[in-house]
Amino acid sequence: MAVKLYNPTTPGTRGMTTQDMSAITTKKPVRSLITIKKKHSGRNNQGRITTRHRGGGTRVFYRNVNFDLPAGTSATVEAIEYDPNRSARIARIKDTDGAHHYILATAKMKVGSQVSSGEDTGIETGNRLPLSKIPVGSIIHAIEMQPGKGAQMVRAAGARAQLMAKEVNYVQIKLPSGEVRIVHNTCDASIGALGNEQHKNIKIGKAGRSRRKGIRPSVRGVVMNAADHPHGGGDGGRHGVGRNPVTPWGQKTLGYRTRRRKSSNKLIIRSRHAGKRK
User: Domain of 88?
Assistant: First the structure.
């Protein structure tokens, strides 16, 4: 999938690129599969801002993607759609009972493709089956971390993971970050790599596009006043010299471990940072 270029007719379009929508076959989602998406502007259930620089943006509907397709499902792809809530494309499928579902679309998925799930499913792109039934070396996506919980890993545009090895009750999976993790072999995964792989090469071009996504401006701490940020203040000299980088509340930001007491740490065989250490 290519990236669409703009003619530099205005300063905002100079250097701007956008997604190629040629693979999308319809612009109208299924009404029964969408819900109203309420904006929280980065606030949690207590009303406190936990994610900064969020707010505003274009109003969108949430597409209810089925991350846990029931075993025994056999369906046909009816359309490839755009999802404003994720970078990957979604596919609208219709099963033998006439019900519609949204699933993540693979790179080779087209209208008319057949999709199925279950232990007896063939090893074909888009099919979903347990990890114990997938051959070693296969490219997979939409991987479960706990059986029956639904896909949680490898769901972004162009993402892919590889099944590296099989043990007694677990399998080793190499994730896009380079991390090697073990997952129970009863967890489900889908075959193939996700589409829209050129999403990472898109250039925003202007601030207005970020604002329409709900991303507000981010200001550096060194240009703030001393009352607003630990990096702020100064008499015009070099800012931020003499202390390690911290957040507005004094929390360290570089070289400081934030992942602690995670029960899933024991499932990581090789860290994603292993290749960066010397």
Answer: 3-200
Q: What is this structure's pTM?
A: 0.89
CATH number of the domain to which 165 belongs = 2.40.50.140
Residue at 31 is within a domain: yes
Contacts by 146-154, CB closer than 8 A, 24 or more apart: 146/184, 146/187, 147/184, 147/186, 147/187, 147/188, 148/68, 149/68, 150/67, 150/68, 151/67, 151/68, 151/104, 151/188, 151/189, 151/190, 152/67, 154/194
pLDDT at residue number 237: 64
> What residue ranges of the chain have pLDDT lower than 50?
none
* 23 located within any domain: yes
Report the pLDDT value the prediction gives residue 69, as an integer from 0 to 100: 92
**Considering the domain boundaries, does residue 234 fall inside one?**
no
With 0-12 / 13-18 / 19 or more C-beta atoms within 10 angstroms meaning exposed / middle / buried, residue 244 is exposed
Interacting residues of 228 by C-beta distance below 8 A, sequence separation 6+:
221, 248
Neighbours of 245 (CB within 10 A): 15
Q: Is residue 240 part of a domain?
A: no
Give the chain's domain count.
1
CA distances from 160 to 76, 96, 276 (A): 23, 29, 21
- What's 66's DSSP letter? -
* Pick from 245, 225, 221: nearest CA to 234: 225
Q: Give percent above pLDDT 90 in the chain.
A: 73
Query: Are 71 and 128 contacting, i.e. CB atoms less than 8 angstroms apart?
Result: no
- CA–CA separation, 52 and 17 (whole Å): 26
